[in-house]
Amino acid sequence: MNKRLKLYVGLAVVALSLSAVALIYREKLHYPVFSPLKFFENAAEQCDHQPGYAVDIKDGKGNIISKTSRDVSVGDEIIDSDGRHFRVTGVSGKEATAKFLQVDKQFLAYQELFSSLEVPVAAPVGDQNKQVGIYHTHSDESYVPTDGTEAIPFKGGIYQVGQNLVNRLKNDNVNVNYDKTPHDPHDNNAYYRSRRTAIRLMKSNPVAMIDVHRDGIPDANYYRKNISNTDVAQLRLVIGRQNPNMSANLDFAKKMMAFSNETHPKIVKEIFIGKGNYNQDLMPTAMLIEAGTHVNSKQEALNGVALFADAIPTVLGITTGGAPTDKVTGTGSSGGSWKALAWILGLTILGGGAFLLISSGGIKQAGSRLSSYIGREFTGFIGPMGGVRKIFQKKDVKEDQTDQEFDPDKNQIDRENLEKIR
User: Fold this and answer.
1) Which of 10, 37, 265, 337 is a good FRET partner for 167, with 20 to 30 A between their CA atoms?
2) Pick from 224, 223, 274: which is nearest to 253 by CA?
3) Helix axes 158-171, 298-309, angle to 10 degrees
4) Model confidence, pTM
5) Phi and psi angles of residue 9, each rounded to the nearest 5 degrees, phi first
């Protein structure tokens, strides 16, 4: 009974080890990599776009650089429409201070490139069937002047803004996968719920994925502007700085702001690089956009995303004109498969070792059993070869004996000796 119990325990350890491998591999595909800082990332994301909540970000002279309805943290960064790059150095309540770093040279380079080309293509994919994925993490977000309230659970006015973006892209012959799954309530778990939607969109192999929001600052004039003879709500592009694709996401955002503003000046107000993930670890061309704020009219937001949409197909290289200059590659890599295999082998060896230790009753006994097993296996491997050698040896002896039997002189001598002995 004791041996049987040890056997069951050992098998359970092996089964748990393999289950852990499967769980880790699944979590790696579907959820952000675990980090002790994840708790604080959630806290940073939970106040996104809360109506009336606003943080003023100022430079050293007290001039307002940006306003946002999210918690601002030291290390957050801003690149405005002129390419000026700031980093937050201090936060006190609803006011933050940012230091000017420099004019972003990469952004200026994109501006110069796009201004000198008639049909610039920043990242062609070479396939007109590529899709753009669009969804809403905060599906209740609405516009007070038009919707009558800042939030409508499960069917906010933000859906009409998303639909206008989709319609404009389709008019440019862009394939769009628009997922209208709601992710209410508007809390710190909304990004985990919307991650399932983003994963589902990833199955169609999109060339980009856009999460459409509106801001929550109580200042409509901060976003309101007349562009191309149209009253619009400007857009902010938001990049999460706590994901492995941050550099690629930021590069994509710089291209989008540079070309959008070249086509429709100042349609993109700024790029905000904030604490959080925002599911942008899923692909290098993932982006969160904010179309105005809750006190802008919805029509202003509709007009804003329509002008912004003009840049998307060109920057992504899914237009019908222009020669490709570089290539967007997929997010997968063979390295992940080898890492998964290493995990499986490592945990399988660990589980097998635990099983051997438990079933043997101790380290010494486990070592003895392992040595005995290896000895038997080695002997089993060598045994057949030894048998072959014995067969050949026996064959040689028989051949010698046969030769002796047919030697007449040798037989005569043996008979004479036998006679003497008698």
Assistant:
1) 265
2) 274
3) 30
4) 0.67
5) -65, -45
